[in-house]
Amino acid sequence: QTREMRLSVLALLCFLPLLTLAARYEATGKPYNVSYDHRSMFINGQRALLASGSIHYPRSTPSMWPVLLKESKDAGIDLIQIYLFWNLHEPTRGVYNFDGNANVTQFLDYAMDAGLYINLRIGPYVCAEWNYGGFPVWLRDIPGMVFRDYNQPFMTEMARWMTYIVNKLRPYLASNGGPIILAQVENEYGWVENAYGSSGRQYALWSAQFANSLNIGIPWIMCSQDDVTTVIDTCNGFYCDNWLPGHFSAFPNQPALWTENWPGWFQNWGDAVPHRPTQDVMFSIARWVARGGTHFNYYMWHGGTTFGRWTGGPFIITSYDYDVALDEFGLPHNPKYTRSAQMHAVLHKFEDQLLNNNPPSPVSLGNNLEAHVYGQGSSALVFLSNIDSKNVGKVSFQGATYTLQPWSVQIVVNQKVIYDTSS
């Protein structure tokens, strides 16, 4: 069965050639431009629909990195999203560690060799079920320290670390010919900002201002941060398509980026192994793209293992498998790997058609049934959605009849279903 699934994805990849290879990364060493408008990212002036996957380099071994990145590229992943773990890299103030599985520049070199872009999530708070959320323990002992607040001791240390790591990795920025096309400051701060009161708002604004002052030549993002206008706001969640209307209204000049689609979850001691059905993951992506999203990231794509004492807590196990496409050991986990690859092939095939049209208004086809149509006539790319979680839907559209399983999307061209999320 696994062999048949691999053959099916290879057949589909041959049938749907990637027509926009110019937008994929090539390690030429020449600087290139990264920008955006309301619809998408631009890479060297060309629109790009980006399929992204999170890999935390310290949660695997350096010998695994080339294989993980090749498997990612083979599945149609364009962009690898990584966190920088401050406490891993600066265990003692002023003493830095970039050895072994902390060798981030080696990981970036392998990514360049594989032809993959990078989203660099600096934080410095990263969460990630990582000890202390990535903060070094020595940080707490600085007099007057208040984490993640408009607090001078914290901001001084945050600015020092960010300046150091940006300068270290500056050769890897797109503006210098490297693979890094996006960078993130802070992490889901909007979810806790109100608990800090007015100083939380000041800190959020300062974080964006300081990040922009580093002049890295690529866009900055902040996930779940809808009150800051000087960076791109992004979505985290199991589903983000319902986030889109509010985002486009609040930020009419920003594209829609989904930094964390959770294909599974981390595991606690004594609990059942988390599992999210492949069909549900693919449904969430199809709905996201149908309604206007042009970047999505699997958190995680490869979860790996939290070695040593780096596991956050309480009671989170060291396996960070996450029920994702590349399992804890870096092996393809089917059907998630195969079905993800098939989805990416379809979206890349019709990348120009998607990105050169604004998100269409939905066409109602009945209760909880709708269509989103990109283009005109028989060549139009159509997303037929059944957002009813219990009932099968039968619809007639453009001269053909379709049966939509509950909670599913069919992608249709010329009356032919080229992808069905319920499969």
Give a short account of the largest sheet. 8 strands, parallel, barrel
Binned, the helix content reads: 25-40%
Strand % is 15-25%
Distance between the termini: 15 Å
Q: Helix and strand succession?
A: HEEEEHEHHEHEHEEHEHEHHEEEEEEE
Overall radius of gyration: 21 Å
Q: What do the pLDDT scores average to? A: 94
Model description:
By secondary structure, this protein is an alpha/beta fold. 26% of the residues lie in helices and 22% in strands. It has 10 helices and 18 strands. It has helices at residues 2-15, 65-74, 86-89, 104-114, 152-169, 198-213, 244-250, 278-290, 336-349, 351-355; strands at residues 34-36, 41-43, 46-48, 50-55, 79-83, 117-123, 180-185, 220-223, 232-236, 257-261, 295-302, 363-366, 369-374, 381-386, 393-397, 400-404, 408-413, 416-420. The strands form 4 sheets. It has an 8-stranded parallel beta barrel with strand order 4-5-6-7-8-9-10-11, surrounded by 4 helices. The longest helix is centred in the middle third of the chain and has 18 residues, at 152-169. The protein is globular.
What does this entry show, briefly?
The chain is an alpha/beta fold and about 425 residues long. The protein is about 25% helix and about 20% strand.
